[in-house]
Amino acid sequence: MDGADLASRRLPGTTTAWVLSDGKIGDEVQCFGIADELGLTPERRLIAPRPPWSWLTPYGPVDPREAPGRRASAISPPFPDIAIAAGRRTVPYLRRVKRASGGRTFTVFVKDPYTGTGTADVIWIPEHDKLRGDNVIVTLTPAHRLRPAVFAAARAAPDPRLAGLPGPRVAMVLGGKGVNHDFSAEDIGNLAAMAGAIAATGASLMVTPSRRTPPAALAAIRAALAPADAAGRAFVWDGTGTNPYSQILAHADSILVTGDSANMVGEACVTGVPVHVYEPSGGHPKVTRYLDRLTEVGAVRRWSGRLEHWTYAPIDSAPVTAAEIAQRYRAFRGA
């Protein structure tokens, strides 16, 4: 985006901000991705409600131990100009900040809070969710922190673990078991077979797991790539050293990502390279709608048994989301 577009979504450097989190990495990625585009450097405020208050979220009150003014509270004053939150357990805390600040704090909730549009001043919703309203921002993919500058820096200073891999390079981005998906023995076998088949074409593989990836899946993929690894055409991150995730995406000519994470698929789509999706066992209608829509706009294709080549414009929702939030924040402040 040009300078005018950048200015439209950047807030004054004096703007204070919090990100309310219960520690889920996927939620934090989206919140900090939005904050980055707003030009903010928010404080991470970690909440940890105890039972039974945790059981009552998002509808109940905050844990009394974490009420504003209590020693253990993550939401004690002074309150920020903006508070951004994601995850159902943070809903009572965001609403409490709004009340305790006398309405002064501008509140942003990321994803459906399940408590209606009155939960926050602005709510961001992915297109595949159904909540709509005057204060709801809708985009196709989630926000994240993988900006063009991040990829440019990665390409300018390649990770030594990847620099020697010959092209073409294929990123294999692995999720794992979750609420809606499972990594069954069949899925593990399929993924290992895919890795071996891609390597057999002469491509280099760069494999990055998530915290949810079953060890058996990583072991099977590593075994399938043993010949490629011996030939200097494979890298499987084992969790040691700096996470090379952004480096892997920056240097990929194609991507194969498991379809259990909207974040991972969305991050892949910002690269502009072909994104192949393998859907593990299970699923959810919302996930299907998400992948169908990305297929419709030409960013992804379901894995068909081979690498395919196509082009599309990179999809990056963070700047759009931030610009809309900035506009609404200025209106809220009367600026």
Provide structural commentary:
The chain has 335 residues and is an alpha/beta fold. The chain folds into 2 domains: 3-143 and 318-333, 3-Layer(aba) Sandwich (Rossmann fold), CATH 3.40.50; 148-302, Rossmann fold (3-Layer(aba) Sandwich). Helix content is 36%, strand content 17%. It has a 6-stranded parallel β-sheet, with helices on both faces. A 6-stranded parallel β-sheet has the order 10-9-7-11-12-14, with helices on both faces. The longest helix has 16 residues, at 185-200. It starts with a helix and ends with a helix.
Q: Concise description?
A:
It comes from Lichenibacterium ramalinae. The protein has 335 residues and is α/β, with parallel strands linked by helices. It is 36% helix and 17% strand.
Q: What key attributes describe this structure?
A:
14 strands, Rossmann fold, globular, six-stranded parallel β-sheet, single chain, 13 helices, alpha/beta, 335 residues
Q: Mind telling me the CATH class of the largest domain?
A: Alpha Beta
Helix content: 25-40%
Strand numbers in spatial order across the main sheet: 2-1-3-4-5-6
The proportion of strand residues reads: 15-25%
- Stated plainly, the CATH topology of the largest domain is called Rossmann fold
Which parts are unreliable, with pLDDT below 50 for 5 consecutive residues or more? none
DSSP summary: helix tally: 13
Integer-rounded radius of gyration = 21 Å
Query: How many structural units, i.e. domains?
Result: 2
User: What is the rounded distance between the termini?
Assistant: 23 Å
Shape: globular
Sheet/helix structural class = alpha/beta
How would you spell out the order of helices and strands?
Answer: HEHEHEHEEEHHEEHEHHEHEHEEHEH
Largest sheet composition: 6 strands, parallel
Strand runs, count: 14
Mean pLDDT: 94
Which second-level CATH architecture of the largest domain applies? 3-Layer(aba) Sandwich
